[in-house]
């Protein structure tokens, strides 16, 4: 899938989610976002999902370069 198709699909998904959750304004509050997250079964957002993997990768690179 190319970049243009990906973003077109993401835009369509965003519009569908907005419609499903009754979001009609351009701006969305944090409170509204959490309502959507809960309704979709999202309990936690991990902003650094690969931190341990990345740290292990860096450690492995340091050992390999010695």
Summarize the structure in words.
- This protein is mainly alpha-helical and 66 residues long.
- It has a domain at 1-45.
- The protein has 3 helices and no strands.
- It has helices at 3-20, 30-39, 51-65.
- The radius of gyration is 19 Å and the shape is flat.
- The model is unreliable at 57-66 (pLDDT under 50).
Overall pLDDT confidence: 80
Low-confidence stretches: 57-66
Helix content estimate: 55-70%
Describe the oligomeric state of these chains in a short phrase: single chain
The coarse silhouette is: flat
Strand content: under 5%
Secondary structure tally, helices = 3
Largest sheet: none
In short:
This protein is an all-alpha fold.
Features:
3 helices; 66 residues; mainly alpha
Structural topology:
Blueprint: H1 3-20, H2 30-39, H3 51-65
């Amino acid at each position: 899938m190319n970049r243009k198709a990906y973003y077109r699909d993401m835009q369509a998904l965003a519009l569908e989610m907005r419609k499903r959750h009754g979001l009609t304004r351009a701006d969305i509050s944090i409170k509204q976002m959490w309502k959507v997250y809960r309704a979709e079964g999202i309990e936690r957002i991990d902003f650094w999902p690969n931190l341990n993997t990345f740290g292990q990768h860096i450690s492995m690179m340091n050992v390999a370069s010695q």
